[in-house]
Amino acid sequence: MSVDGPAGSAPPEAPPVCPRHPDRVSYVRCQRCGRPACPECQRPAAVGIQCVDCVRDAARAMPATRTALGGRVREGKPVVTLTIIGLAVVSYVAQLVVPGFTQQWAFSPAAGEVEPVRFVSAAFLHSPGSLFHILFNMYALWLVGPYLEATLGRWRYAALYLLSAVGGSVGVLLLASPVVTQVDTSWYDGVVGASGAVFGLFGAILVVLRRLGRDARQILVFLGINAVIGFVLPNIAWQAHLGGLVTGVALGAAFAFAPRSRRLLVGVVATAGVAVVLVVLALVKYAGA
């Protein structure tokens, strides 16, 4: 009788493999969960090596780092600002290549009464005959947008931009006359541009900088120069600038001065409250037209 080995001996144990990559043998184990981790799944830790799953779970469990005004600290690019710029650029291209696109989405008090979406859509359009129009607005947006997005957080920043856009259109509506004359045709004149929303951002950043004790003189100078330009140069909807600015200041103040323990509640209530006020102002104006 032949004997291959000691009677009752166990078969050799299989080498450890990475759970995420079963085809890879690894004798290095995670210090937290004890599972094998291949070189691709290893992450250096204070003591030893951790696997990517444990690192991810630990990151989720950690409280989010917040800015002085409650915005979540994030790495990477300003997603909301870039999205707004991307939508404006795509819309501008559509204005150039799609017949009637500008007229379909531009705001006028008469058109807004029938199609309320124009209160917002006009903020993503610009004058097809002036490349400077979109370049200036997008440059201004890039100057203040990323800072506000980081300081306030994404959802409050997006709400600020959109409501300031609506506020700009409401400003045009409130200061327009439904009585058409040879001099005044503002009830039917189309308005396009992100200026109202951008002025809302400048109004908000003015409040935020003051709240944080920082110098806001450059913002005041910018607003003063643009206020003069709006009354001197033709074809500039200063009414939209004013409406957006007032909206941005109001909402920015609510966000900036909210108590630390009630920032979410104040943010939601302020956003809803400003939206309701804008809707009521528009309805009252249309009712009296």
UniProtKB/TrEMBL annotation:
InterPro entries: Peptidase_S54_rhomboid_dom, Rhomboid-like_sf, Rhomboid_protease_S54. GO terms for biological process: proteolysis. It is found in: Membrane. Belongs to the peptidase S54 family. Pfam families: Rhomboid (PF01694). It comes from Cellulomonas fimi. The lineage of its organism: Bacteria, Bacillati, Actinomycetota, Actinomycetes, Micrococcales. It comes from the Bacteria. Gene3D superfamilies: Rhomboid-like. The chain crosses the membrane at residues 79-98, 130-148, 160-181, 187-209, 216-233, 239-257, 264-284. GO terms for cellular component: membrane. GO terms for molecular function: serine-type endopeptidase activity. Keywords: Hydrolase, Membrane, Protease, Transmembrane, Transmembrane helix. This is Rhomboid family intramembrane serine protease. It is a multi-pass membrane protein. Residues 116-255 form the Peptidase S54 rhomboid domain.
